[in-house]
Design brief:
Two copies of one chain form a homodimer.
Chain A (H helix, E strand, L loop, with lengths): L3 E20 L4 H11 L7 E3 L6 E8 L4 H14 L5 E15 L7 H11 L6 E5 L2 E7 L3 H11 L9
Antiparallel strand pairs in A: 1-3, 1-4, 2-3, 4-6, 5-6
Helix pairs in contact in A: 1-2, 3-4
The complex binds threonine (2 copies).
One threonine (THR) binds next to helix 1 of chain A.
C-alpha cells in the first residue's frame, strides 16, 4: 500500500545530549536512563547506532528547559561507567513527516532527504518509526525544513504538530 | 498521563546495514537512500546519531532477504561519496514495547533497559517514537528479550506483532 503522508510535524523545543563511547555491555543504557527517570526528566528520542571497537554513542533529546539538569545528572554517570564525553546542543529542532505506512513504502525517506538536500538543509540526526520519519536540523532551519517537506509531499498549509 | 504499554513487538527478519563516516553535509543521506528506493528495497529503521569530526554513521535495517542486494547497492555509493566501510549483520532481531504515551512518561525506557540488563541481554541499537521503544538485540535473544519485557511490564501472553 502507498504511504499516506498526512502531515509535517515540527518542534523547536529540542536539545540533544550525547554520551560518547558507552561500553557495549548489558546494563549501561539502563545506568544512563534510570537516574533521568528518577528525576522525572522527560526523554523524547533515544538513538544508539552500531558500536565500534566495543563502544557506541547514545543520544537522547529533552526539552531545552531540561537540558542543563539532564547534563548534570548524566555527566557523573558517564564518568562512573567509563564512557566518554557528554555533549549537549540546544540549537536544534525536529522536523518530520507523519503518516500511515511511511516506513513500508520505499522512496518516502529518500524523497524527504532529497527535499532537504535540495533546500541545502543539513540533517543532523535521523530516527524512523512506522508512522514517522524524524530529522534533527539546526533550529534556525526548522521552519524552512517544514515548508520544504510540505511542498515535497504536496501537503496543504495544515500541519500535524 | 501514564503510558499504557499495550504489548511487546518482536521481529527476527532484521538485517542492519551501516555506512560508516558519512560526511555531515546536505545531500549525502539522500545519496544513500535514493538508489535503494529506486530498486524497491524496503527500509525499516534508519538511525543517524551526532557526527564527530565532520562525519557520522548511518544505519538502516532491511529484511534478511534484502540485505545482500542493499549492500551491493550501497557499497559503490559509499565509495563515491567518500564514506567509510559498509558493514552488514543479519544475526539481529528487533524487540520493543508499544503503547500510547510511552515517550512522554519518564521511566518507561529505563524500565525496559533495566529489564533487558537484568536478563543479561545486550542492546545493540535503540530507536524510539511516540508509541514505541525499539531495541536491536542478537537474533538468538529476541524470544528471551520479548518474554523479559512482557514480565517487566506486567503484560499477558498476547503480544503486538
Ligand atoms: C550501549 C548500551 O546500550 C549497552 N549495549 C546496553 O545494553 O546497555
Ligand atoms: C549525514 C547526512 O545525514 C548529511 N548530514 C545529510 O544531510 O545528508
Amino acid at each position: 500500500s502507498v504511504a499516506l503522508v498526512r502531515g509535517v510535524a515540527h518542534d523547536t523545543d529540542v536539545a540533544r545530549i550525547t554520551v560518547r563511547a558507552v561500553r557495549d555491555r548489558p546494563g549501561l543504557a539502563h545506568g544512563i536512563f534510570q537516574p533521568l527517570a528518577d528525576h522525572g526528566i522527560n526523554i523524547d528520542v533515544i538513538v544508539q547506532n552500531l558500536s565500534e571497537a566495543g563502544t557506541t554513542d547514545i543520544s537522547f533529546t529533552v526539552s531545552k528547559a531540561d537540558m542543563a539538569a539532564a547534563v548534570d545528572l548524566v555527566r557523573p554517570i558517564a564518568a562512573e561507567i567509563g564512557a566518554g564525553d557528554v555533549s549537549a546542543d540546544a540549537s536544534l529542532g525536529k522536523v518530520g513527516i507523519v503518516g500511515v505506512g511511511i516506513q513500508s513504502t520505499p522512496g518516502i525517506a529518500a524523497r524527504a532527504f532529497g527535499a532537504l538536500a535540495e533546500a541545502g538543509i543539513n540533517i543532523l540526526g535521523i530516527t524512523t518509526s512506522e508512522i514517522r520519519i524524524t530529522c534533527l536540523v539546526a533550529e534556525a532551519e526548522v521552519e524552512h525544513a517544514a515548508r520544504t517537506l510540505h511542498t515535497a509531499f504536496g501537503l496543504d498549509a495544515d500541519s500535524a504538530q
